[in-house]
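Practice problem: predict the structure.
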Amino acid sequence: MNFFVRLSLVLALMLSLFEATAWAQQTPKIREELPESLRSSWDSAGELFDDANFEAALVEYQRIYEETKNPRVLYNIGICYKERKYYARAVAAWERQLASKDKLPKAEAERAESALETVRPFVSTLELTSNQPDATVFIKEVEVGKTPFDAPIAIDAGPNKIVLEKPGFARVERTVEVTKGKPIKLTLNMVPAEKTAPAKIVVQGAPDAVVFIDGVEMGPAPFSGEVPTGRHTFEARKKGWVTARQTSQVAFAQPLKLTLTLTRDLQEGKVRVRTGHPDATIKIDGEVKGSGTWEGLLPAGGHKLEVTKDGYKTLTQEVALVADQERDLDLSLEEDSSNAWIYWTVTGVLVTAGVATTAYFVFRPAEEAQVTGTFDPGVVPTLFRF
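Answer:
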């Protein structure tokens, strides 16, 4: 990024912050519209905002709005939410303000519309389900309603702590990371409180796996919440991974922490290879597996089979496997006729040598003296001279 681009961004940010601060203080006109009893609250809210105490400023602005229903105050409420990174609630405040657009000065309506355009991309939706109705749901410690919900819930991009509470049931707490503009679905089930203990279930290998307690889905890992005392089976599940499972005893008021590790589910099939030649070499995917016959497991998918033997043509074949499949491969090797001349050449030489040797002993002079050998009796070395 060059200097001028960086400078323009810095100036734009400074201007935005300046406008936000100035607008938080508002014009005397709005202050004059307020009852005398609320004007000091308006001034305090502006001072708190300037001091970056957005939470306290929000309390003052909300009190002013509740008593006056003045839609112009909603802009400041939205700014306070935005500064606290509660983007969904900021959008809700500005949309409520624009619902009374006919009561707003044109410049203020345009300012609210501009703010909406800037912040709305940072708001996504959450589709939340639970096995318990009438459970109170909190997002970032703000109550958003009770289960079940008729429509998805607006939620901020970034980390969000979601809590479910219901009398007689253990509190459920989960933190989810929301991607900008990407809707999410979440299931948070509850278990009876009775006597409980705090539990935390962490998953390694596949951190986004789903946690189950005694077969009941508790939502994505990590799980953190109250679990009834007694013996329970904790599981982490994810498609394409081997389920991790552990059974543990939960003692009253004693925290339990478990780490479940998932490994990839290697889908395999079995192959049996028979060549009919004990000394034929069997290779699969370039690796020597054995001679003559071979049986073993291979990952699902395609593989290259190669069989070699001296005097025979190399056999190459593609082998496709699906999970849990068994394949029997009975192979026939074809003799390599291109090497036949070697056999006949060697055989011809041997025949010629035999004829010459026979002729020598038949026609040699009978009176030739016997030669005493130096080799052990019965051992007759042969010397070929081709």
